[in-house]
Amino acid sequence: MPKNIGGLEADDDTTRGPPNMRRKATRKETILSLVEMLLQANDESSNHGDEEQVNLEDDKDVPTVDEHLQVVGAETFHKFQKRINNLDKELRNFANAARQLGSSAAILSSAFHLRERLAQILHLYRENAADLFPRKVVRTTINNIPDDAPAQNTSRRLKLHGRHHLRIPQHFARPKVDENLDLEDFPKQFDALATDVTTFMDCLNEFPEFTDEAVNASISAFQGDLKYWASCLREYNGQFRYPAVQRYIHDLTSEMGEHIDAISATLSMFIEVGVPTIRFAQKHGATNLLNLSTVATFFSAVTATTMQFSYELKTHSGTAVNSFWFASLVFSIAAAVNSLLGLTWKQAMYRSPGHRVPWWVLIWIKRSPLVFLVMSVASFSVGLCCFAYASEQSHITSTITTVFTAFTSFGLLAVSAWFASERWAFGRHSGRKWLSDIIMDASDRFFSLPGMGVFGSCVRKIGKGYKKTKHAFRRGRRATKRLSSRTVTYFSRTSSDDEKHDDVEANGNSNGPILPLSSPPNSPTFKYSMSDPLPSEIRASSPSPTTTPTLDATAPPSIMEGSSPTEPSVGRQLWQNAIRTVKMRSAVSSNLAAMAQKTRGTPNRQRTLSSTLQGRKRMIAETPVKGVLRSRIATLTPQLRCLETTKDLTAHQALVKHMQFSPNGKYLATSSWDRTSLIFRVGDPFVSHRILAHAKGFVHQVAWSPTGHLLLTKLNKSVKVWTEDGVCQRTIDRPVAIESITWLPTGDGFLSVEGTLVAKLDLKGNVMGQYDFYPVKLHDVAVTPDGIRLLGVGPLLESKDHLRPSKPRSVEKRLAVYNTLTKTIEHQTPVLNDVRDITLARNTKHGLIALVSYENRAPPQLWKIDMVKDHLNHEHNAADNLVARFTLRHTYMPKVQVEFAGPSYFGGKNDELVLCAGKAGDIHIWDTESGALLHHVRAQALGGDLTCIAWNPAAEDPFMFATGSHDGAVRIWTRPTESTDTGDEAVSSVLENGGHSASYTPRTASPFEFERTDSPLTQQEFESTDSIGISGSVATSEVGLLRELRTVAFASEQEPKR
Questions:
Q1: CA 298 to chain centre
Q2: Whole-model pTM above 0.70?
Q3: How far apart are CA 736 and CA 413, in angstroms?
Q4: pLDDT class of 25 with cuts at 50, 70, 90
Q5: How many CB atoms lie under 10 A from the CB of residue 677?
Q6: Average of pLDDT values for 1005-1019?
Q7: 229: closest CA among 182, 181, 195, 187?
Q8: For the chain, how far is it from start to end, CA to CA, in angstroms?
Q9: Phi, psi angle pair for 885, to nearest 5°
Q10: Distance (Å, whole) CA 660 – CA 781
């Protein structure tokens, strides 16, 4: 059976063995399969029992939070495990392909260490996932993993061959997992993985024959992110058993998996393209050295042979001949030996890379064979000239030998000088200029010197004459080629016509028969047509038959008798080729017909959305809610389902950015990008109380004071303080952009979030304090009721080691607790999603809880702030030795995946609800304590394109909340006061009015002309909702706003500023 280590796939040879061992393995597999079937039956029965439990919600497909996290978390881990297995497989394939390369020991070792590190990482991630999702991910015990199975099988095979002393190569071994690994080793393992990845990349780049920039880019990005994650995780030393940190580490699998997939893809391409290229280049270099050795050996033999005629010469010239020829023999032998040495070195698996070898060793191995061979040839040539004179040859022989030797030696020296110059040019200009370009530039500078003009003009004339002569010679050579080709074609046509005349058209003089001019299509003697391929083409394209084709019975017998078996005539060849063509065409047509029939018979099955959703519904089950929670949910659900749109107010001419009810519930303040902020008086009907105009820019946020008497409006770099009657008391300017504003619990000041700083300001704009959250760039901040601690959320600017990730979206986000007394960050919790907002609950009966909102599709989360003892700081007394720590309580899962609009808020009198709006118009309301989805309003045209939502904290019975949209409309949701239809009559009236209630009145037209955008999303998943869900989305409204009652309040130019 295939076994794995830490999830890594590995092949095992345990199935190979004697028959009794195979029978035992088969028996064991049968028993295991029976046990697995029994366990599956028990699971199905337990799941069936769970499905029979009564659910409190009407929507059967709403997953509970815990079960959903278990399933999704397990799927994420298994996907990450599969990615690591794919990379491990590619590394094994690369090791197998690189074994034949020279200097591959380093890359094989680095690949094995990288595989070993991946096994350690995967084991840690499995332990982390088993802590988070114990029902879906099973732990692995290292002691029970048979690591020595492959080694035993390999040693058994070696014993069969009589080689007991051989050791298994490192790249064949299976990676082992350290038994002492702990979750606290994550930063250390990330750093080690970054080092191993960098080493692997350096070893790849040590092959000068091929360099893949895609592999370098993917590995460099992965290495940078690993170092960034390790640097960030070091700040959570001792907290790797906390669920929040474990969840963040688990979420990193998506980012890490993308890098692993990129490396796997580029490594696969490197195996297909790079390894063959390197192998070809190394083979080419080895072939050159082998040829050089052969030539040197042959030349040494020639030199030794010629020395037999000169070693007895005792004259001075004879001594010179012997000296040169002995030197030539020495140089040729050295060239041959050094060539073999270089060949052996290049093909060695364990040789060092080129940049790790001393320069004199490289020069001796690479350059000395060719240099010695050239010197050997030069010495032999000089000695040959001397021998011509020493042996008293005739003057003609001596002269000719000297001239030819000088000519060949000059050519050898010139070519050698050209090669050396090209090498120098490449090193000097890095391939940007050719040697000819350098020579032309040097000649131009030389001729531009004073007095060189006449000489330059002569040289140019000579060059032009040479070019003309060269072109004339080329034209004459082309004319000669054309003439010769025409002559050969003429004679070949004449000879072929004679053969045809002799073989086919002999008029009875030949023994061969005359083929009929027309034959039926199925006859083997059918007429050869021009559309058929030529006989030469048929012979070139069709395979040669192994046996002679048998003629059909209908063919005349004279055909078999006429032609010679050794030299068939042209007519017989035409006939045989035609038969082959017919057979090939019939075979091809039959194959095409079979393929077409197979294609038509195979249906194309596709996965549908309904099947996926149904499978998900069957996989996810809800957990029951008990006791008081059940009764509370049963009470809240009817109150929420009766909420409808009762007011449809035309508030702004641009999108509504933010809105908030006053603490006493009397007023609703809205802000918009039309540079206005509106205050509505809550009542029946809603009345526009004040219009707050801002001349400087967009209004991004409104914030009511704890008493509800003052209102803050936030612009880009300023904050305005307004009374509830619309009087601007002060404009407070700030030097930098303001992210958000938050009132202090006492109401005598507010907090301004400005980058990494939080400024504490009074209502006159005086700075009462500053708190630095660096390196967190804050997006929002909340203050505890005692005013001692600040809760900030935002992304990390850089790690502690000043590192940044390769992608901006990979930046770590944090939840931070800041102590204003010690002016230090007490606690930090990492999160992966883009966090934007944090809101504290007013009800502190069950402790201090915070609602954290994220961007895009990430659902809101409920975090509890626990006060724990600080074991690292013993300077303070017991009362002060407490720090705040975030603990995740719930993740509020929507009915389907939606893109949320704006922050989420608490609702209800005691913050027992959590509500959030989607950009497409969905509204989700959950129970705060249990996380159960109580009510969902589907997206409709009336409520589409939502931008924000706000809850009226003073409205207890009935509930009330407001929504803002892109078209500037503000809609009030509450229980309608005039509704006489009940039950089926109400539903029928809703359906008759196109989805609206009978009391619905269209919203009055806005006095501003603008185009309303359509909803960017459609929610087809909610088409099967029951009639109760329909009644929850019924909308009614009143007619317009009373524009004549509006009072516009402007900020006075004489107002005091700070």
A1: 57
A2: no
A3: 74
A4: low
A5: 29
A6: 33
A7: 187
A8: 77
A9: -140, 135
A10: 17
